[in-house]
Amino acid sequence: RRHTGEKPHGCEFCGAKFVDKKGLKAHSQIHTGAKTFKCEYCNAGFRANAPLQYHIRTHTGDKPFKCELCDARFMRKTTLNIHVRTHTGDFQYTCKFCDLKFVYESQSKIHMQRHTGEKPYECGFCGAKFVIKKELEFHLRTHTGEKPFKCEYCDAGFIRKRILLDHIRTHTGDKPFKCELCDARFMRKTDLNIHVRKHAGDFPYACKFC
């Protein structure tokens, strides 16, 4: 049938046709809302197998798609294709205000909002506004007290995963950020940046008295 183009199985809701019953069944769930593909790690359900497989990788950490130009790996092929543009210089999205170019459309939109001052995401507790939804989500936790990122070594909890990773290093002693000008190492990149200023002679804070 794939050679002849014959599609004998038709959808009763919209008339779409499929080669086999399996394809029809997966399609029908779009109309019925059924989510028969279940995650074995959590209770999440999906209408098709492909999104389920993507979801499972968030549990397993599997990143089967590797960039041929560097060591980066990705869970989805579409994400890999977008990443490759950073190597080829294929920046499809241009800011209409300053001609800065971007690989990702989302980056372009966020950047242009900084020109326009648009902050579409507003906090329902205090009225604070944000450029991106993720920043609003982080902010809301300061009101609700939610700290979903828990330390495996102690009872500390954190609003952001990045802050948790910084904290974990106080337990492990890991210092991944190394100065290129000396042997100093740091737990946080911000501490490294401050340290590098000492080599460059960049002291931005001056005493107003002396």
UniProtKB/TrEMBL annotation:
Domain C2H2-type: 9-36, 37-64, 65-92, 93-120, 121-148, 149-176, 177-204
Record GO terms (molecular function): DNA-binding transcription repressor activity, RNA polymerase II-specific; RNA polymerase II cis-regulatory region sequence-specific DNA binding; zinc ion binding
GO cellular component term of the entry, any: nucleoplasm
InterPro entries: Znf_C2H2_sf, Znf_C2H2_type
Cellular localisation: Nucleus
Keywords: DNA-binding, Metal-binding, Nucleus, Repeat, Transcription, Transcription regulation, Zinc, Zinc-finger
Entry's family note: Belongs to the krueppel C2H2-type zinc-finger protein family.
Name of the protein described by the UniProt record: C2H2-type domain-containing protein
Organism: Clastoptera arizonana
